[in-house]
């Protein structure tokens, strides 16, 4: 599949398995999401531009690399996206943050937008949309379309788990967006849940049901 990066690191795979286990308690699930976000964030930011700065170490002057350009804007798809957001912010504490409130109508599986707030200069920034689950991809496709309406051009998507159907749909709808995920699972059940998956990510992060 083009524009798909599976982060196949042993630490990521181990933590993902712990998250899939139904007996994993809320506090541990939340901590694991945050840790995996950090590792996904490391991969997803690999192509950030660098510039050379003149600095002085305690011993001598040197030219050294520093991040260049506008800071990344992380856009969290509420509510489960906030779990990933925390870990990404550990890695990029100066990142700007946007939120898009979307929930899946359980009957139609179509996303319903209830909130949208992003930095006013978001169009000038690289944007990483974060949401643990790419199932039908209806939510992520809508989120990408929404930020594109604001002029954003450089967009990546970070998730924990993707269904093949969702990866294809994202690729068809937004071929310019690369999806970073910890795993691609078997497929979707009749209710649009990823199999084998990890269940409802929002419920598992927040202990709701
Ligand atoms: C979940 C998940 C994604 C969406 C994925 O959110 O966090 O946003 O479903 O499904 P899709 O790819 O089929 O659109 P949900 O709608 O359950 O809302 P929540 O985060 O508030 O729990
Ligand atoms: N949303 C979730 O939280 N889990 C799924 O498996 C599908 C959508």
TrEMBL record:
Q: Which reactions fall under this protein's catalytic activity?
A: UMP + diphosphate = 5-phospho-alpha-D-ribose 1-diphosphate + uracil
Cofactor note text: Binds 1 Mg(2+) ion per subunit. The magnesium is bound as Mg-PRPP.
- Residue ranges of domain Phosphoribosyltransferase in the record: 6-208
What does the record give as EC number? 2.4.2.9
On whether Transferase is a keyword of this UniProt record, the answer is yes
Give start-end of the signal peptide. Answer: none
The UniProt annotation places 5-phospho-alpha-D-ribose 1-diphosphate binding at 79, 104, 131-139, 200
Q: What highest taxon heads this organism's lineage?
A: Bacteria
- Keyword annotations: Allosteric enzyme, Glycosyltransferase, GTP-binding, Magnesium, Nucleotide-binding, Transferase
The enzyme's main class, written as a single word, is: transferase
Which Pfam families does the record cross-reference, listed alphabetically? UPRTase (PF14681)
Activity regulation: the record says: Allosterically activated by GTP.
List, separated by semicolons, the cofactors it needs: Mg(2+)
Record NCBIfam families: PRK00129.1, upp
Name listed for the protein in its UniProt record: Uracil phosphoribosyltransferase
Q: What organism does the record attribute this protein to?
A: Benzoatithermus flavus
Organismal lineage:
Bacteria, Pseudomonadati, Pseudomonadota, Alphaproteobacteria, Geminicoccales
Give the gene that encodes this protein: upp
């Amino acid at each position: 599949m083009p524009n798909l990066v599976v982060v196949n690191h042993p630490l990521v795979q181990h933590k993902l398995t712990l998250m899939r286990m139904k007996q994993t308690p809320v506090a541990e699930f939340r901590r694991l999401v945050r840790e995996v976000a950090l590792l996904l964030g490391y991969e997803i930011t690999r192509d950030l531009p660098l510039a050379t700065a003149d600095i002085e170490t305690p011993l001598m002057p040197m030219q050294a690399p520093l991040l260049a350009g506008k800071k990344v804007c992380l856009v969290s798809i509420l509510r489960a996206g906030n779990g990933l957001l925390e870990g990404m912010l550990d890695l990029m504490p100066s990142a700007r943050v946007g939120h898009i409130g979307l929930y899946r109508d359980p009957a139609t599986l179509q996303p319903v937008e209830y909130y949208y707030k992003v930095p006013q200069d978001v169009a000038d920034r690289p944007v990483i949309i974060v949401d643990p689950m790419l199932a039908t991809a209806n939510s992520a496709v809508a989120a990408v379309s929404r930020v594109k309406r604001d002029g954003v051009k450089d967009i990546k998507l970070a998730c924990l788990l993707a269904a093949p159907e969702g990866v294809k749909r994202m690729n068809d709808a937004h071929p310019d967006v690369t999806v970073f995920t910890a795993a691609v699972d078997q497929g979707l059940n009749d209710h649009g849940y990823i199999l084998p998956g990890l269940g409802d990510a929002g419920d598992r992060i927040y202990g709701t049901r």
